[in-house]
Amino acid sequence: MADDLLKLSDSWGHSQGDGTDIAPLVPFEQALESSSLRRNISRDDFLKSTLTQLNHQRLIPLLFMLPRRWRLQPAALPQSLRNLGGVLEHGLLSPLLLAALADDLQHLIAHEGKRQPAKKNAMDRWCQRSIDLDDGSSRLLPTNLIALQSISSPDSAPPSPGAGALARVAKGFSAELQWRNEGLPFLQPENARLRNRALAQVLNVLGSNRLPPPPGSSEPFRFESCDRSSALITHLIAGGWQCRARFRASVASFGLGASTRDGDQWSQIPLAVPYRTGLCDSQGEERRALLPHCSLEMELQPDHGEPFLLQYYQGTEGLNGWAALNDLNRPWQNDRSNGTVAYPGPELTGETLSAALDLCDLMGAVHNSAAQQNRLVIGGYGALGYCIDSTAMLEVAVRQTTHLFPLTLGGLWRQRLDDQLNQLLENGLKASAETVERYRQSLDTTPQDLFVNRNTVNDANRRLLASQPPHSPFALVRSLNGESTAKP
Predict the structure, then answer these.
(1) What is the pLDDT, as a whole number, of residue 73?
(2) Is the pLDDT score of 166 beyond 50?
(3) Is 80 helix (H, G, I), strand (E, B) or coil?
(4) What pTM was computed for the model?
(5) What residues form DSSP beta bridges with 308?
(6) Are 312 and 389 in contact (CB under 8 A)?
(7) 3-class state of residue 186 by DSSP
């Protein structure tokens, strides 16, 4: 296998939408080589010094992103991840391994959790009637539009752009190579991002109203007198808001960014996770691709001001539910108009959007309660499906088909999710018969890409291509799309 899976295409940068004036790109391997040479140490020593700075729970995505010549021996890894080292060295990541990793992830990480203070579980996060602010304080959720639209950030220094969960624990390889995207603005101003977070949690708590109320529980949460997320969207549309949702897929970097500095100039390092697809190309060779990040993206546009940007998925944040779509402006990865995000299928509006929101409520109740009952780490991420699986399940429930690949949710956890649904229904879960039936059908019929045969290969290839961004700096994506990588 050629060591060029993350090679950048010479064709990138010829369109104004590529944004190379604000975000010049440099290949990951070139950045690693340059930084290690500046420090005048070997690759092994350079990586060892880096890994000692990283939280092991957050290490797995980074390990899979390393170019092959930078893959390390098992001895360079923490004890719990050493067996993963051999897999990394030979580039063996595949849908089958993802499924195995989803189950083993619970065991690889659990031992570290025992030494950590107790954290909120998936259900706590989903039902939380406040949002946590970056300064360590919290704020109660607003209960009406006036309070939501007037919400603003406290007077404090804003966090560094790109300082997500992984960026905060990763200190950076050196002064020249940083684990964050320096020099890039966010897509929206700070107060708009805070409102996105608040509305996302409002939708989560409205979804939690469907759960059987525990003894002595408080009154159901209401926003604008609505106690359901679908009812809220209907209310917003009646008030003149433009509301739509789209299934989306983009190249995944697990929230991790990187940039390198040459003097005063910061160049951005596109990150991605290559994997084996288990599918043959026309020459009989196995296709390689880059893992996608998938979600249901929802845009709510009031008469005036910034739109609210939200996304639903099973996430590393530790729950199944809604989160703010608070992206940095990464033109090579998540631009909503230049083709680096794929939007397969028509958008959801009106009654179809309302039905999708009812399904999000139901899936949040089932998945988060299953994560709590089974004491799963990271809210059951992987075991209950990755972001791709949760989005595909929702798409199948809404459309009876999906455009996403690879799907790895195993039969064991599909059974447990069905059992959890039955238990919740017996205890009084509030959901319509149609919504329940759509979810059951999705559990039964959402594809699984662990073993592809002649009856499923055409559909798997269709979904693989449909989940690729139409436009990308990665030559591998352009090759899958049949685009020429030669400079025009």
Answers:
(1) 56
(2) no
(3) helix
(4) 0.88
(5) 300
(6) no
(7) strand
**In the beta sheet, which residues pair with residue 226?**
223
pLDDT tens for 172-226 read: 444 567 878 999 999 999 999 999 999 999 999 999 999 988 765 678 999 999 9
Residue 59 burial (10 A CB sphere; 0-12, 13-18, 19+): buried
**How far apart (Å, rounded) are the C-alpha atoms in residues 84 and 98?**
12
C-alpha span between 221 and 142 (Å, rounded): 10
- H/E segment holding residue 178: strand 177-178
Closest CA to 245 of 380, 355, 134: 355
Rounded to an integer, what distance in angstroms lies between the CA atom of residue 64 and that of residue 421?
A: 34
Query: What's at 274, amino acid-wise?
Result: P
Q: What average pLDDT does this structure show over 131-156? A: 86
Contact 333, 270 (CB under 8 A): yes
Q: What is the pLDDT of residue 39?
A: 60
* Collapsed DSSP state (helix, strand, coil) of residue 1: coil
Cβ count near 434 (within 10 Å): 11
Positions of E strands within 100-168: 130-132, 138-140
Match 């959007």 to its residue by tokens.
353
Quote the DSSP letter at residue 374. Answer: T
Q: Which DSSP category does 403 fall into? A: -
Contacts with 63 (C-beta within 8 Å, 6 or more apart), sequence order: 71, 77, 81, 84, 88
What gap in Å lies between CA 410 and CA 188, rounded to an integer?
38
- Output DSSP code: residue 331: T
From CA 195, how far away is CA 486, in angstroms rounded? 43
DSSP 243-287: EEEEEEEEE--TT---EEEETTEEEE-----EEEEEEE-TTSPEE
Q: In the 8-state DSSP scheme, what is residue 306? A: P
User: pLDDT tens digit string along 67-86?
Assistant: 766 665 554 565 555 555 55
Q: How many CB atoms lie within 10 A of CB 473?
A: 27
Query: Among all chains, which residue has been given the structure tokens 């939708």?
Result: 203
